[in-house]
Every structure is written in C-alpha cells, then in structure tokens.
C-alpha cells in the first residue's frame, strides 16, 4: 500500500468517524476500521447498542445516506466501497 493510499484511508476513517459521532449520543463509542483488498474499501463502523437504531435510521435511510457519502469519498480515491454498521458489543 502506497503513502497516498494510507493517507486516503486515514482521512476517510477520520471523516466516517466524525459523521457517525455527530449522529450518536454515545459518540465516544464510535469505532471505525477500514480494510482494503483489490481496490475495494470495507468500512466497518461500531456504535453503541443504544445508538444503533438512530444511526441506521428508519428503513435504513440514514445508513444509506452515510454509505453514499463514504462511497463518494472512496470513488474520489479510485476505489469501490462497502459500509458495515454493527453494535459495539458485536464482533465484526
């Protein structure tokens, strides 16, 4: 992984964490991890169980909106992206 890719992942991780923290009541519980393979970024987000429904939104609309934003960032980096949201007490 080149320096440009590492910087892209770190800035993407920071952006995703900030977005999710703004939605969560327990912002300190938000954890973000990014894995990359074959030009695809897997963004894994953990939030407190009490914030899960709030972050996902009714019928997943909030989660879909966040995935579109993260996907746009990934596309700018020349990558595809998927986003997984889990409760913090669940393993990824």
Topology:
Elements: H1 3-23, E1 31-37, E2 40-47, H2 49-56, H3 61-76, E3 80-87
Parallel strand pairs: 2-3
Antiparallel strand pairs: 1-2
Helix pairs in contact: 1-3
In CATH, what is the homologous superfamily? Answer: K homology (KH) domain
- Biggest sheet statistics: 3 strands, mixed
Q: Which outline best applies?
A: globular
The CATH architecture comes to: 2-Layer Sandwich
Which stretches are low in confidence, meaning pLDDT under 50 for 5 or more residues running? none
- What is the number of strand segments? 3
Quick check: average pLDDT?
A: 87
Helix tally equals 3
Derived from helix and strand composition plus strand pairing, the structural class reads: alpha+beta
For the record, give the distance between the C-alpha atoms at the N and C termini, rounded to a whole number. 23 Å
CATH topology: GMP Synthetase, Chain A, domain 3
Strand line-up across the major sheet: 1-2-3
Helix content: 40-55%
């Amino acid at each position: 992984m080149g320096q440009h890719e590492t910087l892209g992942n770190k800035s993407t991780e920071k952006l995703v964490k900030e977005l999710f923290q703004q939605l969560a009541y327990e912002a300190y519980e938000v954890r973000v991890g990014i894995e990359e393979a074959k030009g695809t970024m897997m963004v894994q987000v953990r939030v407190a169980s009490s914030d899960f429904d709030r972050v996902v939104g009714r019928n997943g609309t909030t989660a879909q909106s966040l995935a579109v934003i993260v996907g746009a960032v990934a596309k700018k980096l020349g990558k595809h992206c998927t986003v997984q949201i889990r409760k913090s007490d669940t393993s990824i």
